[in-house]
Prior knowledge:
Elements: E1 7-9, E2 23-26, E3 34-43, E4 49-53, E5 60-69, E6 72-75, E7 80-81, E8 84-88, E9 92-97, E10 104-115, E11 120-121, E12 142-144, E13 158-161, E14 169-176, E15 179-180, E16 186-191, E17 198-205, E18 220-222, E19 231-235, E20 239-244, E21 252-261
Antiparallel strand pairs: 1-2, 3-10, 4-9, 5-6, 5-10, 7-8, 8-9, 11-14, 12-13, 14-21, 15-16, 16-20, 17-18, 17-21, 19-20
Amino acid sequence: MSNFGAKVSKPTYSVNDAKDYNLSFSSSWPLLKIAHQGRFTINNRNTSEVVVTHNLGYAPAFLIFDCPSANTSRYRSYGFIAGGQFATSTTNLKFFSDGSFSGSRDIYYYVFRLPLTTNFEAPIINTATEDTFEDNGDYGIKVTKEGKDITSTDFRDYVIHSGSRMPLIHAVKTGLCTETGFIFPKMFSYTHNLGYVPAAFAFVNYGSNGAPFYDTNYWYPVGGVGGPSDIALVSQANTIRLEDDHNPSTVTASFLVLKDPKDYTQVEVSY
């Protein structure tokens, strides 16, 4: 793919040679667009039930945050919380309960317009050198949401703001865990060749091979806290892999790989 189209760099970076992850926008790859976001409360929820109906027609990427108090928010990888797990299908986000939860807990969620089963790979335009310059004023590109004022100082009012980075998608890759793993018997891997360790998420569909939690038609986020001991997501400088202990395995994995390095530091710019 040629290097053409619309590009917007962060303040202090030259758009001519900015590294991919120092662009606020590029028409060469998509942004992580939000389809639904909101909050619901779990109250003595001891049965499995649909909590969000998105009706996107595909299983989308999503994030779940557990908020045990007004001043605390915890990202729940693997969607596990309060005696249950969250997962997505082509029509809804569902809470699968193990029947043990009592009390009340607020849950925040994001559902993205990004199919987990449609492969995509963005071009690698620049990961090497770049020019920077001194940031001396109010400039750049700003596009507000409908009904919001372009003079707003609240970044939440903007669709695109060159002073604020948005997650840039490098790839979505999906496939069966049929390769021989390094940690567990089976794995699915993808070579991204970014030259650095990118931020990444993974989701799994256990098909007919899963435990009762793992409904055939649902995709579960994979990660650390709350995740099972028999699965591992490993992101490295040129590859990413998901290893699983099911053998024989019918596990299908889906990777969401961002342009952002895992140790990327965001500096908020005020206008």
